Automatic annotation (TrEMBL):
The keyword Glycoprotein does not apply. This is Sulfurtransferase. GO terms for molecular function: thiosulfate-cyanide sulfurtransferase activity. Keywords: Repeat, Transferase. Residues 40-140, 196-282 form the Rhodanese domain. Gene3D superfamilies: Rhodanese-like domain. The lineage of its organism: Bacteria, Pseudomonadati, Pseudomonadota, Gammaproteobacteria, Pseudomonadales. The keyword Oxidoreductase does not apply. PANTHER family: SULFURTRANSFERASE, THIOSULFATE SULFERTANSFERASE. InterPro entries: Rhodanese-like_dom (IPR001763), Rhodanese-like_dom_sf (IPR036873), TST/MPST-like (IPR045078).
Length: 286
């Protein structure tokens, strides 16, 4: 079964404000496993003011696999369907996702919806920061919602890759470009954030933070993003990775805006790769 044509990845604040009833709006937040106070504070922040008509989507608790040893991993189709239904998502509904950060959390849920066959989903460019900067109102209402009828239609196997598929790239058995999207010191290994320092052999590097306007938090224009990604071969698929697949989804969003459709996210990313001492990591001096 062919998937419907996806919407443009981004929606502007002006477009959303002009016709909010057209969308089911989700505010995306997350917490690390076991860190209950942080999850409570995210919900409290939502209750104190959110984009009118939006529902809260807990990326860790509801839209991730609770049985994975790694944080924020993709849930199975049934679990994802249940979470979407609980958020009131209907099968034929257009969705806008946003967050209170730099868009990577919203991008992760956007990527998950696309992976499970729902193409009518967009990320609010600039998120809550852009909404507030435009002088638009917030709401504290949390109306009871009827459960949705969303069902994951298909699992797009090209959306995610696992450790063995990345290892095949490293070994020259699979044709793809590995793109590390973490900050430069983490990429080089000067800063250790995971079990071991460094990056996967053969990786290219574009820090996700360089893809955003420093003042507004908006993604850079498509033409500028294409310049940022100029080091990538346009004819070879891209695999993005980061720490645990969140920032990698943010860069997958930027690549989609830049016109790339051959992108996958390494879900386990460095939190998984660095935990296995048999898998090589490379450090560099710059």
């Amino acid at each position: 079964m062919s998937l419907p044509t996806p919407l443009y990845p981004l929606v502007s604040v002006a477009s959303l404000a002009a016709d909010p009833q057209r969308y089911r709006i989700l505010e995306v937040a997350a917490r690390k496993a076991g860190d209950v106070p942080q999850a409570v504070s995210a919900r409290e922040a939502f209750s104190q003011g959110h984009i009118p008509g939006s529902a809260f989507a807990d990326l860790c608790q509801d839209f991730s696999d609770p049985h994975s040893p790694w944080p924020y991993q993709r849930p199975g189709a049934q679990a994802f369907s249940r979470a979407a239904q609980a958020a009131g998502i209907r099968q034929d509904q257009s969705i806008v996702v946003y967050d209170r950060s730099d868009g990577i959390w919203a991008a992760r849920l956007w990527w998950l919806f696309r992976a499970y066959g729902h193409r009518r989903v967009q990320v609010l460019d600039g998120g809550l920061q852009a909404w507030c900067a435009a002088g638009l109102p917030l709401d504290q209402a949390q109306d009871a919602m009827a459960p949705g009828d969303f069902e994951a239609r298909a699992d797009d196997e090209a959306a995610f890759v696992d450790r063995e598929q990345v290892l095949a790239v490293v070994n020259g058995e699979r044709r793809a470009q590995l793109l590390n999207v973490l900050r430069r010191p983490v990429f080089t290994g000067a800063e250790q954030r995971y079990a071991r320092a460094g990056h996967i052999p053969g990786s290219l590097h574009v820090a996700h933070g360089t893809l955003l306007d420093a003042q507004s938090g908006l993604l850079l224009p498509a033409a500028v993003l294409r310049e940022r990604f100029a080091l990538l071969n346009p004819h070879v698929p891209v695999i993005t990775y980061c720490g645990s697949g969140i920032t990698a989804a943010g860069t997958a969003l930027a690549l989609a805006v830049a016109g790339r459709e051959d992108v996958a996210v390494y879900d386990g990313s460095l939190v998984e790769w660095s935990a296995d001492p048999t898998l090589a990591l490379v450090t560099s001096s710059d």
